[in-house]
Each structure stands twice: as C-alpha cells, then as structure tokens.
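Re: weekly structure request thread

Next one in the queue (445 aa):
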Amino acid sequence: MNLRTFKIGGIHPPENKLSAGAPIEAAPVPEKATIPLSQHIGAPAVPVIKKGDTVKVGTLIGKGESFISANIHSSVSGIVTSIDSVDLGSGYKVPSVVIKVEGDEWEENIDRSVILKKEITLNSKEIVQRIKDAGIVGLGGATFPTHVKYMVPEGKKIDAVIINAVECEPYLTADHRLMLERPQEILVGIEILKKALGVETAIIGIEINKRDAYDTLARAATDFPGTRVEALKVQYPQGAEKQLIKAVLNREVPSGKLPLDVGCVVNNVGTAFAVYEAVQKNKPLIARIVTITGKHLETPANYFVRVGTMVNTLVEKSGGMPEDIGKIINGGPMMGKAVTTYEIPVTKGTSGLILVDKEESSRRETTSCIRCAKCVTVCPMGLEPYLLEKLADRKRFEDMEELDAIDCIECGSCSYVCPSSRPLLDLIRLGKANINRLRRERSKK
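Done, posted below.
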C-alpha cells in the first residue's frame, strides 16, 4: 500500500490510543448544564434568552452576530438560572448560560430518529444557511465556524473537499470510534459538503494506524461516487490543514494563504457528521464525542456528551480521578492546554481530557541550546524554532515576523525533540501574539 504523507518534518510520538477499543457510550443528561457563549474562534454569541426563561433541547440561546461567530443552542431542557462568567480552567472567564435541567423535552422540528436519510433536498445556499443556523464549528479542535469556509469569495475556484480523519494526536480516539460506528452518516455529510461547494471530489485522509476505520469507510465509500479514502503514513502533525493538503493533493498552501487559495476546503470528520445531523435532521450542534483517558485511569472511554456537561462527571464514570495525577490536559498532549481543574463544562471544542501522572507531566530542567538543529529538522513548516525562541525572549517581534513566525502551527514538535528542554513553543506563541498585536496597531494607522 502506497502511504502518503507531507514532505517536511514531523515526528512519531507514542500513540497511547488506550480507548480505541471502547465503543461510544451515551453520557447521562446532566442535572445542570453550563453552556459557554464562546465555543468557537471569533466573537462570542450574544444571548437571546434571560434568567428565568424555559428552554428545550435545541433552543437557540446565543446568536452569532459577527461575521466570524457561531450560534449556541441549549443541549438540555429546563430553566435558565443565570447568565454569568465561568472559568473554563484556563484562568479566563467566559460568559455562559447556566440551565437547571428539568426533563428532556426537544424542539419539535428536530428529527430524533436513527433512520439514515440519504436524499439531500436543500440547495447549496440553503445548506450553508442550515450549517450556520445549527452553529456547526470545526470539531478537530480549532472550532472555526464551518459556514464561513463555505462562503467562497468571488474568483476563488474550489475543486475538492478534504476530510480530516487523521486524529494524529496521541491518546484521542473520538474520530476513530465515530468512523467505525457511523460511516454512512459521515459519508452523507460529505455529500452535503460537496453539494454546498458544487464539487464532485472528496478525499478522506486516514492514518493507517486506524486500519479498521480505513477499511470501514473505504467499503462504504464505494456507494458515493467521487469520494475516496486515502491511507496516510503515521506522522504527526499529519492532521494539520497544510500538511494534510500536501499529503493528499500534493499542493502547498503559501505563507499567509488559506486552503481555498489552492482550491480546496478542509473539514474534520466529526464536522461532516455534525453537518449530516444539521442538514438531514435539523439538529444543531449540542453534543459531541469526548475521549476520557490516561494511563492510570480505570476505564478509558469515548462518550457522546451534551455540551455543558461537567467533565468531572465523565471522569467519575470512568473510575474516578487517579491519585498520582500531575496534569489535566484539555485536548491532545501535543496541542492541548493544561487546565487548573476538571470541573469544567464540555464545549464544542472538547475532543478529550487526558489525565497525566506526575512523573510524565513534570518538565525536565532547561539547559543551554546545544545547536543540534533537531527542532529545525522536525518543524513541518520549515521554520527555525531555536532562532524564533531567542528572538521572542529578546522581544524582537518584528524580526520574528520577517522570519515567518506567524506560520507556526503550534504543533509542539520542536519542544518534543529538544534535548535541552528549551521552552521553544511557549516563547514562539508569545511572539506570535505580539506579532498579531503589532499588525492590529499598524492597521489602525
């Protein structure tokens, strides 16, 4: 089998897919739901309900009024008890709607049946509007509002949809299980995305360590002309947009450009499933699959969870918090963020929670750079992390900008291989934030 991959850099950390064999399990409806109004890249949604209002499952509670924003819907039925700022474990407080759950009453226009609906009756514009109305965002972690990707500017020609089914982050298995258990819905979702763009070609990229998912989707895809499944080499960060495009289409996205500039749109496989539910079932994005895992966790699992459910209830369902935990990571170990507590709500972007023991989570002592150039070798964007780190440390942000630091995808490969344990990614992130600040200041002049 000819395995495709990107050409520059990359690493292969231990996979630790501890929950790969755990079927998706429906998490219980919570007694209280805390639903943030900012679960996406862009402006927070504006609340359209108030304290004391009664809501159902699927009721719009926050409207994405800015160009880059997304609607928020209630995942439960009950009474709105407050609209307040809630810490999501990062130290930053986000406006959130708190709902006391009473029963499980759904909006009447949502189709709750499990019957596969293959016929697509909406036209392209109606599909994009339905995606927008449903509050669909990228479920691979970036949470970019999906409808914006399908508002293709005049003059741009798109010829392919790429479906990111790579799930290259260690530990996470949500997408893997979804592909095994809901392949038909995913493929109909892909047909919807193809129709939204008016293209005939879709390519699903899957790393070959998920051979069962590859075989399942490849068999099912034979009934969907124009859609094919590509087997990819196991190489982190294969799931990054630019790397995936290079692997499956052999096209390079130039610095500062987007996938649509090379004729394609990329969506996560979970997003394709959410699009199916939105367009065919009129179901907004109110739940997602979350991996709860860790080497010392009693039962690593994959849960289908309603947004707003507290993560600690899922940990308890998996056997409870192990005693030797040193770090809790929201997302994957490479690009996820450590959080201060597991008493945080599931959001649209919660792909998983990893409980890391004290020994594995401790940072080694930082020593001087030995000029080994390993960070340069593994950088998938062809950057020089050792140099960018030094410039950031010296606050030379304009020099970082000239060296294309903004192209860093923050995959963490450089920090992973550094024998001196330099805080490469930490300082590059700091530099990128300041480059963006400088650019905003320039645009105001």
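The chain has four domains: 26-101, 124-281, 287-361, 374-444. The radius of gyration is 21 Å.
Next request, please.
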